[in-house]
Amino acid sequence: MSKPDATATPAQLRVAPAVPVSAALGPLPSGIDADWTQWITLNLLRQASEASMLHAMAQAGLPPDVAQQALHTVRNHPITQTALAEQSLHHKLLSVVDAVQSLHTAHPRYAQVERVTSITDNELFERFVCANRPCLLTDAAARWPALQRWSFDFFAKRFGSMQIQVQGDRNTDAQFEFNKVNLRRQVRLDDFIAYCRQNANDNNQYLTANNNLLRRPEMAGLTEDLGDLPLCDRARAHDMAHLWIGPGGTNTPLHHDENMLWHTQLVGAKRWRLWSPLEWSRMYNHHAVFSPIDVHAPDLQRYPRFAQATALEVVVRPGEAIYLPPGWWHQVSALEPSISVNQTNFSVRNTFDYASPNAAPL
Ligand SMILES: O=C(O)CCC(=O)C(=O)O
Questions:
Q1: Ligand 1 test: best mutation among 256, 263, 272, 290, most atoms within 8 Å of CB?
Q2: For residue 235, is it within any domain?
Q3: Mean pLDDT of the chain
Q4: Are 359 and 288 in contact (CB under 8 A)?
């Protein structure tokens, strides 16, 4: 991507404070290292209250005068001032997004996920893809062989001896989805199936989309049991379908995907909670595709704007599929032991340029 030219001169910029740099800076008090400087800058940019910053610094053992002086120095630094000024453009964009979203939520049926039956490609495209709205397709898998055949018994009997990779020990890590690479565990498929059947309310182990199980040679031909979905290119289902298997009680925490997908339920039911990408300013997306908010017990002291976000909620049952447009935030809970498949093999454009910042901590 080409880079723009620099602005002409400092006089034309006019964002830094009109004080001499030496006066604005002052020395950073001892005890304030690069980590603290970054922490203060990040919190200033996130508009954290001064009181909460001073409190956190006191908790970490910094004397109050050191904390005050560090805050003053970092806030008045020309680099911070420039970042804050540039960030005001981001806030302007957010205010436009908020205005559009407040019009969307004023619709009397905004919070409902529309249920549709036998929808054509064109209808899906015009009513949901272009409008960037989710929907629930009630008869999605009605005629799929997978709906009849794919049961816990089927997987245990036919593929039971396979070693598979699941996410395990999720209960030991509050950020289990974020840290999923560390939580990879190998298990026998029949042992995992037995575990799923026995547990009605457990989030400790879950076979999620990252497993690539449907691409394993042992399961060759299995994706032929998946039938058609509107706007989907069935020939690419083998490469772009992902299996999810888990007990009741699994919790996929709040995140968004970078493309659109169908998620079809084959066994058990799941509750989906959805938030539009236009709720951006209320989702606290500080890292990659994740939000730190636990939607079951949101910390509104820390994430107060989430209280104003409007959720859509729907339960997806066997044979039904949810269409999830790109960028929609979602949290998913299994109400029962569950088997489902998601697919991204759309016959229309389904790759978007997403800058995915990784630097900031949760
Ligand atoms: O079913 C789940 O637990 C999560 C599904 C999901 O996040 C997805 O398909 O993108």
A1: 263
A2: yes
A3: 92
A4: no
**275 in the same domain as 139:** yes
Q: Could you tell me if residue 319 is inside a domain?
A: yes
Query: What residues of the chain score a pLDDT lower than 50?
Result: 359, 361-362
The CB of 285 under 6 Å from ligand 1? The reply is: no
152 shares its domain with 196: yes
C-alpha span between 282 and 35 (Å, rounded): 27
CATH of the domain at 223: 2.60.120.650
Q: How far is the CA of 35 from the centre of ligand 1 (A)?
A: 35
**Single residue among 65, 100, 135 that ends a domain in this structure:** 100
The amino acid present at 338, given as its one-letter code, is S
pLDDT tens per residue, range 237-293:
999 999 999 999 999 999 999 999 999 999 999 999 999 999 999 999 988 899 999
Q: How far apart are CA 29 and CA 265, in angstroms?
A: 58
Q: Could you tell which of 176, 177, 203, 208 is best to mutate to test the pocket of ligand 1, judged by most ligand atoms within 8 Å of the CB?
A: 208
Rounded CA-CA distance 173/121 in Å is 42
pTM for this prediction:
0.90
